Amino acid sequence: MPSFRLLPIALLLFGICFGFAAPAFAQASNIADLVNALGVGGFPEREAAIKALVDSHDPHVNEILQELNDGRLFVSSDGGRVYLQGGTADAPTYADPITGAVAADVDPDTMGKVKINNAVRTLLSSAMSQLTLRSPDRAARLAAARDLLKDADPANLALLDTALAAETDATVKSTMEAARAVIMLKTSASDADKKAAIDTIAARGNKDALTILTTALASAPADLKPAVQADIDAITRNLQVWDVAQNVWYGLSLGSVLLLAAIGLAITFGVMGVINMAHGEMVMLGAYTTYVVQETVRSVAPGLLDYSLAFAVPAAFLFTALVGVAIERGIIRWLYGRPLETLLATWGLSLILQQAIRTVFGPTNRQVINPTWMSGSFDFGGLAITQNRLWIVVFAIVVFVILQLVLNRTSLGLQMRAVTQNRRMASAMGIRTPFVDAMTFGLGSGIAGMAGVALSQIDNVSPNLGQNYIIDSFMVVVFGGVGNLWGTLVGALTLGVANKFLEPYAGAVLGKILILVFIILFIQRRPRGLFALKGRAVEQ
Amino acid sequence: MITQMLFRALDRKTAWVALLILIAAAAVPLANLYLPASNPLHVPDYAVPLFGKYLTYAMLALALDLVWGYCGILSLGHGAFFALGGYAMGMYLMREIGPRGVYANPILPDFMVFLNYKALPWYWNGFDNFWFAALMVVLVPAALAFAFGWFAFRSRVTGVYLSIITQALTYALLLAFFRNDMGFGGNNGLTDFKDILGANIQAGTTRAALFAASGIALALALLVCSMIVNSKLGKVMVAVRDAESRTRFLGYRVENVKLFAFVVSAVIAGIAGALYVPQVGIINPSEFEPANSIEIVIWTAVGGRGTLIGPIIGGILVNFGKSIFTGWLPDYWLFALGGLFVFVTLFLPKGIVGTVTGLWVSTRRRPVVAAAEVLQPEPEAAE
């Protein structure tokens, strides 16, 4: 199409014709003229037009600047009017950017985009943040205040002062005050003003404040320096405390994951003296159950997709518990009294389960969505807490409490504890130990399945999911000791926290190696773990 | 006395097997080098290092059998000793490359140049000598096994707990060797070998010699193990396996017996690793994978633990099956391997050799069937 090829030339001619006339437009007070001025001349003229728009204080300005930034403003080669492009790429429509009225008589072939370069883009973003400081939307104001805090420009001082006077929200106001204080430090204000500014910044007490003060220290007046230094020290101390707290939180979060993965193992190990190598695959099956439930919900009731996890938890428990019972009845019960053989058989089973899942679902990761109520994060003091980690900690605690209740308050729990302590005696008292074994294995597997639901939220749902957790789970169990869930709890949390505290000093991998070595040495001291069952029985 | 021990060790079965291995060690290389390709008995070039690899695996299974089958220690970390021996050999082979590497540095191996090493780490010194590397192949696994066993057996860590911490050991080593700043080539390990003892490692004659060396090493290991298990010490080992506390109460130092078996086993595994590396041409941290170590257990279990010939048969058979199976139905190999684990533990607890011997004994002398049951330990008393 020849008209398209001619377009750039037409635009160029247009620019030359009107380039020298741009200042005249900038003088105009009419908002429509100001908008049309955007389409005229080169980039310097465009910057001038943007400044003029900002100065006009018109309510539409912010929106128009945003449209310009997005490249949706077009200028017609005949008459030089600026339009907002809408519609589809094949059939664009053109509307007045202020009124929104669609102009029917515009020929798309004559339209050219209002171009911007990086300088214009920078100006735009600063202009927009200035404008949003007075936006009615609280979130927009907060974001704008944070922008200003980040690149404090003394030029914005007056703007900030007017915004501050009108501000009512406490958070936004404090951010604006901080931004103002940072700007004050850059200007040649009086020492008293600077002192006040430093106090304002120090009161924020976070990493940004520390950076600001450290840079300010060099240029601060001599008599203010001790005060700044004292503030810096105070913030550093404060930050260290929060750092420790953050590490503890990360550790607890990792520990709760370990707890979820290991607790089922601890039960089966405690009762049957068998390490179930297929335990990790139970976790994996639980994660895949979550995926299947999610897809079912998606096709049956898409509105409930956000709550599919609520269905997945019982589904995963039931499914993996059934698989567990089947494994116990089919394989493990033939191997009683031969714990090492059971270990091998369950390992073989884990290979089969992995390959079965790989054959059915394919080797790639499956996507399990994070429900909206589990995504995002919030700040708690100096802690950044992500929602899904928080939910997993809560979930782990709930599972732990329920399990304690089952073990201590139900007849099945009583029987399990009896079998754990003395199998033959329990059998002599009329407890059906094979039934208890099957139920225990089912319970342990079911809990692993629920752990899989939780892990599907933070890890990749792949056939290898279980493999990543199995060794850690073993470590937790042998560290914590058998026959006592508290041991598992303490073991999981200790290892989680220790891991996270070692990480900053030793790195993630070396930290993990140190933990493994520590456990190997620990087992030498206490071959039966932290909370060993006391008894007179000699092994074998 | 040694001749006496040797004589006792050479009970007829073991002697036959050792002889068979030695014949194979000579026949396969000869058939590869001197028979024309048209001859039906000709062994193709690719098969020599492949079978050589099986022999080293068989040796590894034999090493595990010495501790598991005769001493009751189920090590889930024997791959670590194998890999350490392999790394010691790999370090020698890396130093042998010399200036022929991609970066042509006469001292530093390629990966060190790549990772900006300025000088050789101290523990790489000496590995340019074959004798030193050979010494390390033996000493490093032995030292690790000694240190680990010293602590573990003295503290009476037994059964499943011991299995788990041996697994932790190999897992920790896996993570350590994955690190680039360990100075062992990180993720990629050691590879691109050129020479061994001045001979081109790719050459047919070198491969044949390596095969022969593997066969001889396997036969020697079999002989050593046979000497051990047929000695009085071997009897105590079996006693430890079947009734550890009882043996201790009888006055034997159980931990010393276990420690001895563990160290000897680690050394055999290390030598197997050292022979494995030049034949496959690479050693990387994946050899430390806990899964690999568990696979060794299944070789031993398939062949028959508590017999010396069993693990050799198991090691060769399972790996041969693996090669065929992965070429034929690669997606289903894990089903087969997993099924093998379950099948063997459920239906063949004594493995192929144990079962065949059991059948043989029961057809000849019926009343003695019960004796074959001794292998199964008593059910564990409740704690």
Tags for this model:
heterodimer, A: 540 residues, mainly alpha, 5-stranded antiparallel β-sheet, two-stranded antiparallel sheet, 22 helices, 7 strands, elongated, B: 383 residues, two-stranded antiparallel ribbon, 4 strands, disordered C terminus
Greatest contact pair? A-B, 61 and 55 residues
Biggest pleated sheet of chain A:
5 strands, antiparallel
Element-by-element helix/strand order of chain A:
HHHHHEEEEEHHHHHHHHHHEEHHHHHHH
Task: Return the structural class of chain B.
Answer: mainly alpha
Percentage of residues in helical conformation of chain A = 55-70%
Q: Ranges of chain B with pLDDT <50 over ≥5 residues?
A: 368-383
How many individual helices of chain A?
Answer: 22
Q: Could you tell me the strand content of chain B as a percent range?
A: under 5%
Low-pLDDT windows of residues of chain A: 13-28
The profile of the biggest β sheet of chain B is: 2 strands, antiparallel
Number of domains of chain B: 1
**Number of strand segments of chain A:** 7
Distance between the termini of chain B: 44 Å
What level of helicity do the residues of chain B show? 55-70%
Task: State the helix count of chain B.
Answer: 16
